[in-house]
């Protein structure tokens, strides 16, 4: 009698002979055993074994090396166990000797017992099956070699756990399973069935409120992670619990139970076939992993990244029968679909089947093409769709419909028909346009993750570039992982895998820097140098985009071309304003945009509660090329574009210092790329300088440059647009000069401030506006910030009255703020408090959040200089919190500085020194020189001296350095303020 073998894959690889372990020291030898066991009883081709043992880069002579490993395995296990079969090898294993087979059999029997009303018997069988697991499957073997296998095995275990919990609930033991369910829902937060079971267990324990809370929690998780609502089964469980129905268990009906096909929420889950009893093969000899039927092609290159999309797809396959992967051409929809289909194969007893529709040009042949892919051999006169439906009716199948965009209506109709006819069918489709049918779940496939300097997470795009380049230019590819040019290349290619792979081909003859320099002509550059390829895209990036372009209607194409004028995206108002006309009515823009979103041409994103529409840079460049093919069209669109953003800044300035103030600042921040392009066009195009100057002036009036922490950019545009030009009116030139002077004064740039202030006075005289509000304002600002003169208080007051007379509410508010600030520094106590209270009342009446934050700050400043520093600390903290909440980058520069003064005044030198360090770091970011702003510099110097005196030079330097090195200076300061507020100050009362 021969030796008795047992094999284990459900944990580290285990081989027992007559109950004793068989040691195989060589890792590749154990990999070979595992590869043969995964298809136990069937022949495994040599090429498959080579790929399994060495991945996508086998050594030279790998086939001969494999033969040597097979000989070593036969010596270790016996020649009768491993046999040669055709073009490969097979391992003869009794079904009961392999733990995966025993596990599947026990799960199948447990499911049947549960169906037949024997929960106790089911629980025993399922617990026995789960007891076969010794850990993570194949955990002692290289994970990358089995990444297409392990997820499927883990999925089988999760399914068995679900059934086992069903059985325990059926036995009336809800309290016993609650701890396990709490663990499972934490580990698998998007798996709805565990949540439904947890809700039911809580309900049966009399904890209805907690059960309903679970539903709210999983609903929020699904919305945040997948953008989806709870599935029908989970909703039904919730409803039954909500209404205290007696049997809220429909969702927990075991897999394979008979359910009416008409109710979508009761569609059966894919059954797990017992591997010891293989299902029939409807398509001949085609087989996929685990010895199952199917026709998925083998992978020829490594699969990179996509972990989050894979996880989301596995969750969707659990609860949806129709999933469509959409995305721009070349983004990797097909590769992702095939990978998830291969991983999900164990869940489908009758296989995973691929129907590639890319080359199908005749819609009438769609049904026949799918029948051929499934191996349906029907010679009758009935329609092919009927034959396919009959074939699938009783089977558990995952059907992958690949490249459906040119047949989207026909593919959608066929999918619905098949899903209604076959309860055990799941369909995973790839298409640049969604099907748009009921119960379809759409997953938009993004580009690969890009390098992020703020994150240590590896970039998928950079990994792909490195791996593909290694095959073309192995010497240089090693340095790409931390290469800034390589990271920039991935970013400019939008993380699109096809574009990155084509760029990698060019790296055999060009450096990364050279490829970057040629990206403006990316469609010529990113074409494979090979010729005569039968591939439908002929290995070109342009071919992929041409294909998408051809699938669009004339109106959609026209809008695509016109959207290319935007940089960084646009909102609906901008699209309607710039793109409507000459073939597109304004009311058609939304429908055309929606169509382009559905066809994966336009990406829609939410910013501040509003939708924004964006073209990936590759798609945008294609549209721009098409636009420039039309004589004069590009210039006309750029004129409209600059006019739209000019109108936007006019409205923003008019509504400044009102309830919509922060909304405008956030909206303008989102439009920075478009504003820059518009200003650049105005500077270069004849006759548009005045429009550009007005745009830059209005942005300065809204304090946009300060809010975004880019005052130097504001100066740049004002200086480059408003020089001595005939096409800029004198009055507008004077206003622009005033704005330049204002920015220079705020930065503490005294030489520039003097130059611009003198120029402002001269321009005012030329324009006969020498005593105008802007000139008064700038003279007051210069006198206050540079000279520290008390005359500034009167000048600001006069400027305030002049702005109000002209109806410029926002400008008047700024003059009021500066009046109150100057009075706090330079006026007696009564005048300072009068100005402060006036300013605070106006700010509160306006409802402007940014203005109110400054009014609170000014109150704290006045309290510090003319009242109680202890009360000032809380006010200054409040102002800082408000400014942080609206993402203001300018206000905290001054808030942190004045908090340092307050800490010094309260006798906290250590805190003052540390906060001074944090303030210095904020000033360096914004480009502010404090020595050029006299009142602030005077208080800064006083506080600095107090801190140095109280600590000594060494300790002061140490504390100051800690503040300057803090990655989040504002958070540090708020913590120090809270610390000071929680203790009594040296003066006695709590501060």
What does this structure look like?
The chain has 991 residues and is α/β, with parallel strands linked by helices. Helix content is 59%, strand content 6%. It has 45 helices and 16 strands. The strands form 5 sheets. It has a 5-stranded parallel β-sheet, with helices on both faces. A 3-stranded antiparallel β-sheet has the order 1-2-3, with no helix packed on it. Strand 2 and strand 3 form a beta hairpin.
Keyphrases for this structure?
elongated; 45 helices; alpha/beta; single chain; five-stranded parallel beta sheet; 16 strands; 6% strand; 991 residues; three-stranded antiparallel beta sheet; disordered C terminus
In short:
The protein has 45 helices and 16 strands. The radius of gyration is 35 Å and the shape is elongated.
Query: The biggest beta sheet, please?
Result: 5 strands, parallel
Provide the residue-averaged pLDDT. Answer: 83
Percentage of residues in strands: 5-15%
Strand order of the largest sheet: 10-11-12-9-13
Overall SS class: alpha/beta
SSE blueprint and pairings:
Layout: E1 5-8, E2 14-17, E3 20-21, H1 27-38, E4 44-45, H2 46-54, H3 62-77, E5 82-85, E6 88-91, H4 99-115, H5 119-130, H6 150-170, H7 174-187, H8 192-204, H9 208-226, H10 232-242, E7 287-288, E8 292-293, H11 307-319, E9 322-326, H12 333-344, E10 352-356, H13 366-374, H14 384-392, E11 397-402, H15 408-421, E12 425-430, E13 440-444, H16 460-472, H17 474-477, H18 484-492, H19 497-506, H20 512-517, H21 522-525, H22 541-550, H23 554-563, E14 570-571, H24 572-579, H25 589-598, E15 603-607, E16 610-614, H26 617-628, H27 633-654, H28 661-670, H29 672-684, H30 689-701, H31 704-707, H32 711-721, H33 730-747, H34 750-766, H35 773-787, H36 791-806, H37 809-826, H38 829-846, H39 849-866, H40 869-885, H41 891-905, H42 909-926, H43 934-951, H44 953-965, H45 969-981
Parallel strand pairs: 9-12, 9-13, 10-11, 11-12
Antiparallel strand pairs: 1-2, 2-3, 4-6, 5-6, 7-8, 14-16, 15-16
Helix pairs in contact: 1-3, 4-5, 4-6, 5-6, 6-8, 7-8, 8-9, 8-10, 9-10, 11-12, 13-14, 14-15, 16-19, 23-25, 23-26, 24-27, 27-29, 27-30, 29-30, 30-32, 30-33, 32-33, 33-34, 33-35, 34-35, 35-36, 36-37, 37-38, 37-39, 38-39, 39-40, 39-41, 40-41, 40-45, 41-42, 41-43, 41-45, 42-43, 42-44, 42-45, ...
């Amino acid at each position: 009698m021969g030796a008795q073998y047992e094999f284990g894959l459900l944990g580290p690889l285990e081989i027992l002979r007559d109950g004793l372990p068989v040691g195989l020291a060589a890792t590749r030898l154990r990999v070979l055993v595992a590869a043969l066991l995964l298809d136990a009883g069937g022949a495994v081709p040599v090429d498959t074994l080579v790929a399994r043992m060495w991945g996508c880069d086998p050594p030279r002579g790998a086939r001969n090396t494999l033969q040597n490993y097979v000989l070593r395995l036969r010596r270790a296990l016996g020649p009768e166990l491993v046999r040669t079969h055709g073009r490969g090898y097979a391992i003869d294993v009794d079904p009961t000797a392999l733990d995966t087979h025993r596990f599947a059999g026990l799960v199948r029997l447990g499911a049947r017992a549960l169906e037949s009303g024997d929960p106790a018997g089911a629980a025993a069988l399922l617990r026995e099956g789960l007891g076969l697991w010794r850990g993570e499957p194949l955990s002692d073997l290289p994970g990358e070699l089995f990444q297409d296998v392990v997820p499927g095995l883990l999925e089988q275990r999760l399914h068995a756990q679900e059934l086992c919990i069903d059985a325990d609930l059926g036995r009336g033991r809800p309290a016993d399973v609650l701890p396990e369910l709490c663990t499972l829902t934490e580990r698998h937060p998007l798996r709805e069935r565990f949540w439904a079971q947890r809700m039911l267990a809580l309900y049966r324990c009399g904890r209805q409120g907690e059960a309903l809370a679970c539903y709210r929690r999983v609903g929020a998780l699904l919305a945040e992670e997948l953008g989806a609502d709870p599935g029908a089964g989970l909703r039904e469980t919730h409803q039954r619990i909500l209404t205290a129905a007696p049997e809220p268990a429909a969702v927990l009906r075991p897999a394979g139970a008979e359910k009416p096909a008409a109710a979508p929420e009761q569609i059966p889950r894919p059954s797990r076939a017992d591997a010891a009893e293989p299902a029939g093969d409807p398509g001949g000899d085609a087989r996929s992993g685990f010895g199952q039927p199917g026709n998925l092609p083998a992978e020829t290159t490594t699969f990179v990244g996509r972990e989050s999309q894979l996880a989301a797809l596995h969750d969707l396959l659990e609860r949806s029968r129709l999933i469509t992967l959409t995305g721009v051409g070349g983004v990797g929809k097909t590769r992702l679909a095939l990978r998830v289909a291969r991983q999900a194969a164990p869940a489908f007893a009758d296989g995973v089947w691929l129907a590639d529709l890319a080359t199908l040009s005749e819609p009438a042949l769609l049904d026949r093409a799918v029948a051929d892919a499934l191996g349906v051999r029907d010679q009758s006169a009935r329609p092919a769709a009927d034959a396919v439906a009959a074939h699938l009716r009783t089977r558990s199948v995952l059907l992958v419909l690949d490249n459906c965009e040119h047949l989207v209506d026909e593919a959608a109709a066929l999918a619905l028909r098949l899903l209604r006819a076959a309860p055990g069918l799941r369909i995973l489709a790839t298409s640049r346009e969604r099907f748009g049918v009921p119960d379809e779940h759409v997953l938009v496939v993004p580009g690969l993750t890009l390098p992020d300097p703020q994150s240590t997470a590896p970039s998928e795009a950079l990994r792909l570039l490195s791996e593909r380049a290694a095959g073309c230019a192995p010497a240089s590819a090693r340095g790409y992982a931390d290469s800034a040019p390589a990271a920039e290349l991935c970013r400019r290619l939008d993380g699109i895998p096809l574009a990155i792979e084509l760029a990698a081909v060019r790296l055999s003859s060009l450096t990364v820097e050279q490829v970057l320099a040629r990206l403006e002509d990316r469609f010529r550059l990113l074409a494979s140098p090979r010729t005569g390829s039968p591939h439908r895209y002929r290995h070109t990036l342009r071919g992929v985009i041409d294909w998408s372009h051809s699938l669009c209607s004339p109106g959609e194409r026209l809008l695509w071309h016109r959207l290319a004028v935007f940089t960084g995206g646009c909102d609906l108002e901008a699209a309607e304003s710039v793109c409507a006309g000459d073939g597109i009515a304004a009311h058609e823009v939304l429908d055309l945009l929606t169509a382009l979103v559905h066809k994966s041409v336009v990406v829609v994103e939410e910013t501040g509660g509003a939708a924004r529409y964006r073209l990936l840079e590759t798609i945008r460049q294609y549209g721009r090329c098409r636009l420039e093919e039309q004589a004069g069209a590009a210039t006309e669109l750029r004129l409209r574009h600059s006019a739209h953003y000019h109108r936007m800044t006019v409205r923003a300035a008019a509504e400044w210092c009102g309830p919509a103030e922060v909304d405008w600042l956030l909206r303008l921040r989102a439009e920075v790329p478009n504003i820059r392009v518009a200003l650049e066009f105005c500077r270069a195009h004849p006759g548009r300088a005045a429009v550009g100057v007005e745009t830059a002036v209005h942005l300065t009036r809204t304090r946009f440059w300060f809010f975004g922490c880019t005052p130097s950019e504001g100066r740049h545009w004002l200086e480059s647009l408003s020089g001595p030009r005939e096409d800029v009116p004198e009055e507008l030139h004077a206003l622009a000069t005033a704005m330049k002077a204002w920015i220079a004064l705020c930065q503490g740039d005294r030489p520039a401030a003097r130059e611009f202030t003198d120029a402002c006075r001269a321009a005012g005289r030329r324009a006969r506006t020498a005593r105008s509000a802007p000139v008064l304002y700038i003279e007051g600002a210069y006198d206050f910030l540079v000279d520290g003169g008390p005359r500034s208080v009167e000048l600001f007051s006069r400027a305030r009255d002049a702005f109000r007379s002209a109806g410029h509410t926002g400008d008047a508010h700024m003059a009021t703020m500066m009046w109150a600030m100057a009075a706090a520094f330079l006026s007696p106590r009564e005048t300072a408090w009068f100005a402060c209270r006036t300013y605070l009342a106006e700010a509160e009446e306006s409802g402007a959040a940014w203005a109110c934050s400054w009014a609170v700050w000014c109150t704290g400043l006045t309290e510090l200089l003319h009242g109680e520093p202890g009360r000032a600390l809380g006010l200054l903290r409040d102002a800082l919190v408000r400014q942080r909440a609206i993402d203001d980058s300018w206000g905290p520069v001054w808030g942190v500085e004045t908090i340092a003064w307050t800490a010094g005044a309260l006798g906290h030198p250590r805190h003052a020194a540390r906060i001074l360090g944090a303030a210095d770091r904020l000033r360096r970011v914004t480009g502010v020189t404090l020595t050029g702003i006299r009142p602030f510099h005077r208080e800064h110097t006083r506080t600095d001296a107090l801190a140095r005196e109280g600590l000594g030079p060494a300790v002061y330097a140490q504390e100051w350095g800690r503040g300057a090195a803090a990655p989040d200076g504002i958070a540090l300061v708020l913590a120090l303020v809270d610390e000071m507020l929680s203790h009594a100050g040296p003066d006695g009362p709590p501060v």
